[in-house]
Amino acid sequence: MLLALALLVLTPAAQARSRSQTPVERQVVEALNEVRARHGLGALRVAPGLVQAARSHSRDMLLRDYFSHPSLGGPDFGDRVRRHHPAPVVGENLAWGTGRLRAPAAVVRMWMDSPPHRAIILDREFRVVGVGRSFGTFRGHRRAAVFTADFASR
Fold first, then answer.
1. Fewer CB within 10 A of the end CB, N or C, for the chain?
2. Interior/surface letters 93-127, b for 16+ CB within 10 angstroms, e for the rest
3. Cα(first)–Cα(last) distance of the chain, in Å?
4. Which residues belong to any copy of the SCP domain (predicted)?
């Protein structure tokens, strides 16, 4: 099972904090950049603040068992990302899956098959990205992976 949501928002500046990527998060970024290269677009650079924003949101969704751009009972998407990374334009893709559908290539393939997700991935304005993945029991499914990819114009 794999579900996804996409969102594009304008945001003001924010403070960024550093975080390194896990191998799975790095594989998602590599797959995103392969897709962008096939469409004549430049590679996305990893922004540590976006990694932190994405990872925090994936973890929060997993722990509190919800799937949404706004945090459950907390800030909306723009405010959440604004805390971690300054950019006038940001976008977000979400996904969760079990079995083979939790693999990075499957997640990116699913996003590309969905017009709103595809539009975010192929948006020429986006230059940086941060991917976060959490793994555990989600919506009654053991061994599920929850992904957040946050994109920004700078």
1. N
2. bbbbbeeebbbbebbbebbbebeebbebbbbeebb
3. 33
4. 29-139
Alpha-carbon distance of 92 to 35, in angstroms, equals 17
Distance from the Cα of residue 15 to its chain's centroid? 18
Q: How far apart are CA 130 and CA 50, in angstroms?
A: 4
Structure tokens at 100: 């083979």
Between helices 104-112 and 23-38, what is the axis angle to 10°? 40
Q: Distance (Å, rounded) from C-alpha 145 to C-alpha 101? A: 9
Q: Which is nearest to 108 in space by CA: 20, 40, 6?
A: 6
pTM, whole model, 2 decimals?
0.86
Q: Convert the pLDDT of each residue in 114-153 to its tens digit.
A: 999 999 999 999 999 999 999 999 999 999 999 999 999 9
SS3 at position 31: helix
* Residues composing the chain: 154
Question: Strand 128-138 to strand 141-152: parallel, antiparallel, or no bridges (unpaired)?
Answer: antiparallel
Nearest Cα to Cα of residue 44 among 22, 29, 59, 57: 29
Could you count the other beta carbons within 10 Å of the beta carbon of residue 42? Answer: 11
